[in-house]
Model the fold of this input.
Amino acid sequence: MKQSNQKIKQAELLAKQQKQNEALLAPALNYFMNESQQTTELIQSLMHIQFLKNNCPEGMQLHDFVMQAAKYVKLETFSFAQIIFNYGEFGDKMYIILKGEVGVYVPKSKDDIENELSLQNIRKSKKLQIQDDVLLENRNNSNYYQNGIYLYHKVFQYFSGQCFGDVALTSDKPRSASLIVLSEIMYCISINRQQYKQMCEKAIQEQNKTMEIYQRIFNGISQFNISKFIQNLRPISLVSQSILWEKGHEPQQLLIIMKGRVELYINLDESKYMQNKTVSGAFTIKLKRVVLSQVTNGHFVGQEELIEDIPQRKYNCQCIDNTEAYFMDAETFKKIRKNFPDIINLLKNITTQNKTYINHRLTNVLKSIQAYQDKINKEPLNNSDKKTFYECLDLQQMSTEQSKVLRSRNKKLFTLSQSIKKKVDIFQQKYKDKSPQDLIILNPELQQTIQERQDRLYYINNKKLQYNRPHHQDGFSLSNEIKNFKLNFSKSSQRFQQSEQNQQDSNFIQYSSQCISEAALSPVSKKSLQIQLTQFSDSLKKKQYFLMKMQQTTMRQTTKSYLSIRNMKSLHSQINTGKMIKTEVSFMNEQSLNKYERSLQSLPKLLLQENEEN
Ligand SMILES: Nc1ncnc2c1ncn2[C@@H]1O[C@@H]2COP(=O)(O)O[C@H]2[C@H]1O
Done:
């Protein structure tokens, strides 16, 4: 009785809604039937269609979106019992009803058909009890009617303002049902596949993404049912620490958490406390809150009471983080639950699992509180092994756990000084038996190299510092500079002369060897050898001239007893260009020269290169 009353109420509500929608869409229907109507009225009217509201891209005005959509739509008219499309066909359009009703028909299962056939055989002459006028009209169609049995049954019906045939367009699958007209006449607007995709491209992409998430949440439920169910969900943002409900409150919604965390907990009775006798001065610790479960991304919360029709909340619920969720209010849930039996079953299973977990956890927590309480009560008061408050309860740990602030549980990092101290301690511990001498590496050669390197570094840095100074009044460093320069210069000249000597020697050797084997040379080779030799001697002459010039300059400069930094710099560059003084770069070159000097065969080639550079 109660149920039939509810059904009547629901039917009344639907009829009312249908009438309202028909009235709102009447201007649109008039526009298509009689073009004299104003476009603005058409747009205003179409703006009431939920499908267009849902698909309007973010950041776009609904009005503009509807204007665009209106360009694509086409009016179509169907009469009673007309099949709009068949189950399993390719889907080329989707429809929005302006006036009238359609029925969604899906094939019956094989078992159902066989059952009906056997029943019919028993009754024989009796007619089938359930009559479907629409199907009866199509009894000549063997797809729908065979051997006195209807092969399809109606699962849903749509009225004005609602849309159908969109699933095949978004999923690129065949029609999931047949659509047959139920009313005398049915007016609808259709949008073809290509236009639909153009219009709703963004919305389809978003829808597919959300669908993936929902398919994980509603595991095993058909895409169609999920999409219908989630149409009743609304987004909500919840602030961290906000209380969603308390034990005993009336259940008002269920939530699906998308991002963030909420916590189900209970407050223990005032009578449940722990007494600690070990610390002088009696005190009690009241354990107020026991967390029962934390709900995170992709999980339900608050469904238990709605599913089981419990009038009061069983636990408290609080947000831990800032949380994004979707919610469905209790009223809507009650209304639609019958349409989604598979989703309700899934929710029931989830609820049973959660209940088992929560009960298990609660019993364990209460048991451990009791065990601790008993232990304290039994322990004799012994002043000698008195523990501190924190040692006894590890209250610091407890307070961390209960704190509303999330703390890292990673080990604490050392500060720099703590880390150094620790390393020194370890080192001292490790080598405590060794004398300091044991730890020094006694390698004179290495020590000398280190010393030389340091001296060299010191010199370079010192020089840099001096160059960087704007005024060089420091006579001491300047004279040092000159001294160093002279020293370097004399060393380099020695090396240079040595290398020149080497080159001459090697030239001589080369030349002699060439003379010896001259008979074996071709005329071209002989000519090239002559060229090389003349070029080589030219290069030598140039270098000797440069050296002389430099020696004169330096003599002049040193007799003047001072040398400006600028002069020195230019001198350095001159010398470097000539490759005669050992600087960082020239030293390298010199080394490579010496290397080649040793190889008699490669000498002519090297000289040729030198020549090119000069
Ligand atoms: N169970 C159902 N309840 C309501 N509408 C449905 C159901 N199954 C299919 N439909 C609609 O019927 C249409 C059949 O073609 P489509 O698969 O393109 O899109 C489908 C939906 O719009």
Notes: Residues 275-283, 468-478, 503-536, 556-614 have pLDDT under 50 and may be disordered. The two ends are 114 Å apart (CA to CA).
